[in-house]
Amino acid sequence: MPQMKNRSLVSINDFSKEEILHILDLAEEFEANPNQKLLEGKVVGSLFFEPSTRTRLSFETAINRLGGRVVGFSDSASSSATKGESLKDTIQMVSRYADLIVMRHPLEGSARYASEQSLVPVINAGDGANQHPTQTMLDLYSIRKTQGKLDDLNIFLVGDLKYGRTVHSLLMALSDFNPTFHFVSPEELRMPREYKLFLEEHGIPYYEHGELSEIIDEADIIYMTRVQKERFSDPMEYERVKNAYVLKRNMLKGTKDNMRVLHPLPRVNEIHTDVDASPKAYYFDQARNGVFARMALIAAVMGLK
Amino acid sequence: MANSKELKVSAIENGTVIDHIPSENLFKVITILGLDKISTQITFGANLDSKKQGRKAIIKVSEVFFQDHEINKISLVAPHARLNVIKNFEVVEKSDVTIPDTIVGIVKCFNPKCVTNNEAVTTHFSVINKKEVALRCHYCEKITTQEELRFEAS
């Protein structure tokens, strides 16, 4: 069994294939038995320097289901960062209060830096456009649960592939499982060169498409993403591309029976609400899986499992 | 007798000659090696003729001998630099700089949203390509390429 106790979880690239599979197995155990008081008497510092409803609530649910307690803040306006305190000082302090830190921060690389400053493990809950490893873990869990495996799948990534950190991390994590990728995005939001280079170096096939059309019939997984307004410096640019990649119920007609639609949420309009009733819509269950994946990760770094 | 080009910058008795520096990076090399803060004699010349580079710069530092890890810091700005160790006016050792596997400090991460550009954090890169320099940031994981290289003010 992989040894993950006292290790910070910063980037999905820090996990070996065996460690990923171990976490997914643990998540499965927590799904079968979600209330286990393994974290009783422990305090988790939840530091959200930028707001995030889903990730924060999912972490807090996971901690509560494990019987732990949470201290922290849900937005930097209510933290001492507004007084000009450095990230280093905040981490130095909180790591003397809590047994574990869960942090979301807008700066890229902030989680790695925090893990170097902290006396206790740090779980990255998103560092800007860089990494969001717990999201990746729940995505992998959702893929394995719906497909019965992680290997040899046709994965379609759709929408904002340039700024979307979830698709970048998912791409890296799946690279050990012999995937075929299809990237569907507007020209301006294409997959960055470093990821395409990575796939080429690892001999992983990928195809780029400008439109969401009948090509999706080959898909095992369609992973939709939101074209996020806050990632654009030019609001006109956002207005121009925001409606370009919308998935509708009638587009699912020719798709495979095992195909499932995933989305990290929040959804705005990129998946029409008429898709929600389709048995192929999986995004709300995917969000639920986040609680189990986070319970598994917390249990692993705290050495509880 | 040493050739006439060498003598445009006066000879030293003991110390190090750093040759084949791109002229435009002479002052960066001086800064990176901290030569602006030492007290021994330094002479340098820029825009000297070079068969290899067209124009080159040269630095002669008296009584200073560099360790490999120190001198390799200049490899990003002077990848073809050659070191001559001088004792008693004679060259006793020649070596070339090599790009190390990791670079700490010196270079800035090109990503404006990287934590290293916003908090007091020393940069740290893995060198993923030594030919056409490409550095992966240990923090934000983004790759800084040769064209994007910027150096930290010291």
List keywords for this structure.
heterodimer, A: 305 residues, alpha/beta, Rossmann fold, five-stranded parallel β-sheet, four-stranded parallel β-sheet, B: 154 residues, mainly beta, Alpha-Beta Plaits, SH3 type barrels, 2 domains, five-stranded antiparallel β-sheet, four-stranded antiparallel β-sheet, 7% helix, elongated
Gyration radius of chain A, rounded? 19 Å
Low-confidence stretches of chain B: none
For the largest interface, the chains and their residue counts are: A-B, 18 and 17 residues
Number of domains of chain B: 2
Tell me, what's the shape of chain B?
elongated
Q: What is the CATH topology of the largest domain in chain B?
A: Alpha-Beta Plaits
Q: Regarding CATH, which class of the largest domain in chain B? A: Alpha Beta
Report the end-to-end length of chain B measured between terminal Cα atoms: 39 Å
User: For the largest beta sheet of chain B, what order do the strands appear in spatially?
Assistant: 2-3-1-4-5
The helix/strand order of chain B is EHEEHEEEEEEEE
Give a short account of the largest sheet of chain B.
5 strands, antiparallel
Helix content of chain A: 25-40%
**Count of the domains of chain A:** 2
Can you tell me the residue ranges of chain A where pLDDT is under 50 for at least 5 consecutive residues?
none
> What is the CATH third-level topology name of the largest domain in chain A?
Rossmann fold
Shape designation of chain A = globular
- Which superfamily, in CATH terms, is the homologous superfamily of the largest domain in chain A? Aspartate/ornithine carbamoyltransferase
Helix/strand order of chain A: HEHEHEHEHEHEHEEHEH
What would you call the structural class of chain B? mainly beta
Task: Count up the helices of chain A.
Answer: 9
Strand arrangement, largest sheet of chain A? 7-6-5-8-9
